[in-house]
User: Which sequence fits this backbone?
């Protein structure tokens, strides 16, 4: 049997991240993949409504406080002979890198940004 | 390549959004240089109950346990959860350093840009559901080498399988606390650093030494002095085993500086019944009840209620009989358990079947719910009975 430990990265204060939930998929404009690319601007109205501008779209969403928070686990495979206190070689481990207690959900259909409004004749 | 305030404002203009209706801060989101999908396996999202979340915040760890061919479980210090992957059709982005509107409002209002890098994305997460710990294996492992006393030949053979607490954690899909509790239920004893289950006859031998001493000394079974026991029985058995027996079958207390044990009548009557029943396929009920009452220590009253989950009475046979049926010999999974019960007896009353399915009840499940799911009910002589939903071969 395997035992895979999920340990807290630091006992005093895990970072808190935010989850953003979008319908559908995000595709990179170029085939180089998403890494390093801009996604868009995230604003909040004074009422606290998230507004996301992605490409030619505006998305309106809402902030949801999660009843069941998430933990972000980063996998850590032993390459460098880690040992725990009992001096055994440990197998694969996951480190809890952050907790997520809030998410920004966008589920309303995006509004297209029209840049050229034809003038009335 | 970072966006500037001018660029952000220009975008707002094109989008026809009124900056006055927005908070001054804006997050310019981009994918980090290493951002990848969770499909790559380097990271995952784990959904937590608030109590688990608190445990992680306090610095405690969780452990995933399972064999390659088993359904994985996740264990905290004291609970076990089924671990499943839940898919979502939506895309989930994990964003470090992203603030909520409430957090921004608390801070000084700056017209600033927060350059935020997305760590990664996923369309699934790990979902937990509290489940029963898989403890049947614990007894199976310990029964590989039951302890028969220090003089047994087996104890001199170092090849016999023995398990430490760490070994058990490595083999059983359960939390440490659940394993410890079950070890107590099994009357297991830590001998030389290894957990051992006592061979039944040996356990009964120890118990008989104690009850006979109580009898010959005319003690109340509620006030059994530890020191005298150790003194009188020490020559017969190791002192640790005598004390272990007292702990399993009684409750320790101190009175005027002396240690006593209050023996548990229910446990002792139950063990005595076990001893009587295990040597016969079945017993005439009336005869059994008589022998049983005579066999237990003075002052203890036997009652069939004490035998729930250990023995079953057949009131339809003539004469009425009783036989050994131990719930821990039955399958651990729900369907398997019901199949074996219905193979044994076609129709059950709720009163008879309850002790044999009680342990299947999850956090929110009742006996009634289990019966509804796995059986069909009917009336027989004015009494509600349950039988299998499908034919059992």
Assistant:
């Amino acid at each position: 049997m395997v035992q895979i430990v999920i340990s807290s990265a630091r006992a005093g204060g895990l970072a808190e991240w935010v989850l953003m939930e979008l319908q559908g998929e995000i595709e990179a404009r170029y085939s180089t993949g998403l890494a390093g690319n801009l996604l868009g601007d995230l604003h909040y109205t004074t009422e606290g409504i998230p507004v996301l501008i992605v490409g030619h779209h505006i998305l309106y969403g809402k902030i949801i406080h999660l009843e069941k928070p998430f933990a972000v686990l980063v996998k850590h495979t032993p390459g460098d002979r880690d040992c725990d206190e009992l001096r055994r070689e440990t197998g694969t481990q996951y480190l809890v890198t952050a907790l997520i207690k809030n998410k920004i959900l966008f589920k309303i259909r995006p509004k297209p940004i029209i840049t050229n409004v034809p003038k009335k004749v | 390549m970072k966006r500037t305030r001018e660029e952000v404002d220009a975008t707002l203009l094109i989008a026809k959004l009124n900056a006055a209706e927005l908070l001054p801060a804006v997050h310019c989101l981009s994918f980090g240089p290493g951002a990848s999908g969770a499909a790559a396996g380097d990271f995952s999202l784990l959904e937590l109950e608030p109590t688990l979340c608190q445990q992680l915040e306090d610095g405690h760890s969780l452990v995933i346990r399972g064999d390659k061919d088993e359904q994985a479980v996740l264990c905290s210090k004291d609970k076990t959860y089924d671990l499943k992957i839940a898919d979502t059709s939506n895309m989930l982005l994990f964003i470090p350093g992203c603030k909520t509107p409430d957090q921004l409002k608390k801070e000084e209002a700056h017209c600033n840009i927060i350059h935020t890098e997305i760590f990664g994305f996923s369309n699934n997460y790990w979902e937990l559901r509290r489940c029963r710990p898989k403890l049947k294996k614990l007894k199976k492992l310990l029964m590989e080498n039951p302890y028969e006393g220090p003089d047994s030949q087996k104890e001199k053979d170092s090849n016999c399988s023995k398990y430490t607490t760490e070994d058990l954690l490595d083999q059983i899909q359960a939390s440490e606390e659940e394993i410890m509790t079950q070890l107590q239920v099994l009357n297991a004893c830590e001998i030389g650093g290894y957990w051992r289950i006592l061979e039944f006859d040996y356990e009964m031998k120890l118990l008989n030494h104690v009850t006979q001493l109580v009898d010959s000394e005319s003690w109340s079974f509620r006030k059994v002095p530890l020191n005298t026991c150790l003194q009188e029985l020490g020559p017969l058995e190791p002192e640790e085993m005598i004390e272990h027996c007292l702990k399993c079958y009684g409750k320790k207390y101190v009175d005027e500086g002396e240690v006593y044990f209050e023996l548990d009548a229910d446990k002792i009557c139950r063990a005595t019944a076990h001893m009587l029943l295990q040597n016969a396929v079945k017993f005439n009920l009336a005869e059994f009840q008589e022998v049983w009452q005579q066999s237990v220590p003075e002052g203890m009253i036997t009652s069939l209620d004490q035998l729930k989950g250990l023995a079953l009475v057949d009131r339809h046979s003539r004469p009425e009989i009783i036989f050994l049926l131990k719930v821990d010999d039955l399958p651990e999974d729900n369907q398997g358990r019901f199949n074996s019960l219905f193979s044994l007896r076609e129709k059950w009353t709720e009163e008879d079947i309850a002790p044999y399915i009680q342990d299947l009840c999850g956090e929110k499940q009742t006996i009634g719910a289990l019966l509804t799911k796995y059986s069909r009910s009917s009336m027989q002589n004015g009494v509600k009975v349950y039988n299998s939903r499908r034919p059992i071969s």
